[in-house]
Write a structure and sequence with these properties.
6-stranded antiparallel sheet, 213 residues, binds 2-acetamido-2-deoxy-beta-D-glucopyranose, 6 strands, endopeptidase fold (from Nostoc punctiforme), disordered N terminus, 2 domains, 52% helix, single chain, alpha+beta
Length: 213
């Protein structure tokens, strides 16, 4: 019984701390909120009254029709499986659920983007108009495109640019990897055994193409 009380005390305390961690008075309607999330920086548009509109990959809408289950916070597993299956939705969450425990940057993009932001109310209205599901492609339409369109009126993504640069780097290093593999293959043929390592590039290439399409 004591243990139960202790646990619930900690649970309530940590929940309280979570809620007070974000000072809602700092956010204005139409603000661009930014949080680090797994592999990406995640972006959302503040709509007012503790509501954030954001585009997030999520597998759950194609697995269930239970609206209350879908409305719960998107966990990292749901997110990653959504990226792989390429399904996402533009949804509204509370600031706590949106931030997923991270610090929030406000309008950080304004100093990086050459375009001035649109009027806050116009930004929020654009964000609201796009609520619902979309298919999500890591390269061509992601959470960053969504907020860039809403706040600056154009759909570009700096992260995509970086991702392309990384892919190009990997492609180049792959050429040298192939040369290494070729030497390896000769050795394998010579020794008469196959390692699982030679199967890996065969799987990796179609996967990369699927993610990039
Ligand atoms: C829907 O999900 C909620 C929360 O996960 C759960 O409590 C409820 O039982 C589910 N309803 C149905 C019909 O499965």
């Amino acid at each position: 019984m004591f243990l139960y009380q202790l646990l619930s005390f900690f649970f309530v305390a940590s929940k309280k701390e979570e809620e007070s961690k974000y000072d809602l008075s700092l956010y204005k309607r139409g603000d661009l909120l930014e949080v680090p999330r797994t592999l990406f920086t995640h972006f959302g548009i503040y709509l007012g009254d503790n509501r954030v509109a954001h585009l997030i990959p999520d597998i759950l809408p194609i697995l269930t029709r239970n609206k209350s289950a879908i409305a719960k916070m998107v966990t990292n597993n749901r997110l990653l499986m959504g990226v792989i299956a390429k399904v996402a939705s533009v949804r509204v969450d509370s600031v706590v659920d949106f931030a997923y425990g991270s610090e929030i940057l406000i309008n950080h993009m304004d100093s990086v983007c050459s375009q001035p932001p649109l009027d806050g109310d116009e930004v929020a209205r654009r964000a609201e108009k796009l609520l619902g599901s979309v298919t999500y492609s890591l390269l061509w339409y992601n959470c960053e495109h969504y907020v860039m369109y809403c706040r600056y009126g154009m759909a570009i993504s700096y992260q995509t640019y970086q991702f392309c640069t990384i892919v190009r780097k990997i492609a180049f290093s792959r050429i040298s990897a192939y040369l290494t593999a070729l030497c390896g293959a000769c050795t394998v043929l010579y020794l008469g055994c196959v390692t699982p390592l030679t199967v890996l590039p065969t799987l990796l290439i179609p996967f990369t193409i699927w993610m990039a399409a």
